[in-house]
Design a protein that fits this description.
With 101 residues, the protein is an alpha+beta fold. The chain has one domain (2-91): Alpha-Beta Plaits. It is 34% helix and 28% strand. The protein has helices at residues 15-30, 59-66, 70-79; strands at residues 2-9, 35-42, 49-56, 89-92. The relative contact order is 0.29.
Length: 101
């Protein structure tokens, strides 16, 4: 499993619109092969900053399967106009740990 991490800076004042659009867009990503789960979290200190965490089976499921799909074009249409600057996306793999609830 890999973890996709994207820090999203949304244009100020558009947070509610972004969150509404994301509610729609999450169905797109959740339908993709290799998708394992996601979280969108809003920053407490900076109201227009979010972190998107997506779990994929492999990097290829994200970079090829999702990003090169027709569904990605709909994702882009729903979300990309909210970002300033455009986010950098990185992939991580677990070395150690876990968390207790």
């Amino acid at each position: 499993m890999i973890l996709e991490v994207a820090i999203l800076t949304v244009r100020s004042g558009l947070e509610a619109e972004f969150e509404s659009a994301f509610k729609q867009a999450q169905a797109i990503i959740a339908s993709m092969p290799g998708y394992l789960g996601h979280e969108l979290q809003r920053c407490i200190e900076v109201a227009n900053q979010y972190v998107l965490l997506v779990r994929w089976e492999t990097v290829a499921h994200h970079e090829v399967g999702f990003r090169q799909s027709a569904q990605y074009q709909e994702w882009r249409k729903l979300l990309h106009h909210f970002y300033d600057p455009f986010p950098t996306v990185q992939h991580y793999q677990l070395v150690e740990g876990g968390f207790a609830v």
